[in-house]
Amino acid sequence: xxxxxxxxxxLAVALAGCGGGGTPASRNREIQIAxxxxxxxxxxxxxxxxxxxxxxxxxxxxxxxxxxILVPARGIKQELPLHQTVRVALGPMEPGEVxxxxxxxxxxxxxxxx
Length: 114
Hints:
- 11% of the residues lie in helices and 46% in strands.
- By secondary structure, it is mostly beta strands.
- The protein has a single domain, classed as Cupredoxins -  blue copper proteins (Immunoglobulin-like, Sandwich), CATH 2.60.40.
- The strands form 3 sheets. A 4-stranded mixed β-sheet has the order 2-1-4-7, with no helix packed on it. The chain has a 3-stranded mixed β-sheet with strand order 3-9-8, with no helix packed on it.
- Strand 1 (28-36) and strand 2 form a beta hairpin.
- The chain starts with a helix and ends with a strand.
- The model is unreliable at 6-23 (pLDDT under 50).
């Protein structure tokens, strides 16, 4: 094999491994969640593997125990002041389910990562 073909083949192999691996590009997802008398709405969210997720949570009632949101898998505990939107950054998501709940674990939700 001629010497100049080898570097070209190495470059082609390296480029084939970058970017075109068949996985969808990740994206930043901001998802609105309301805390009402019915709990977290929506309480089930679907996102794609690799998406960087931020929950935008607004508590709209005092008639709830969800005055905080806990995301145990991410070590997050965030207060939810009444009528204020709180940003809860979860970062890139791995396949599976990530749960969130109130401190009493009565109001719950799930992020389904596909």
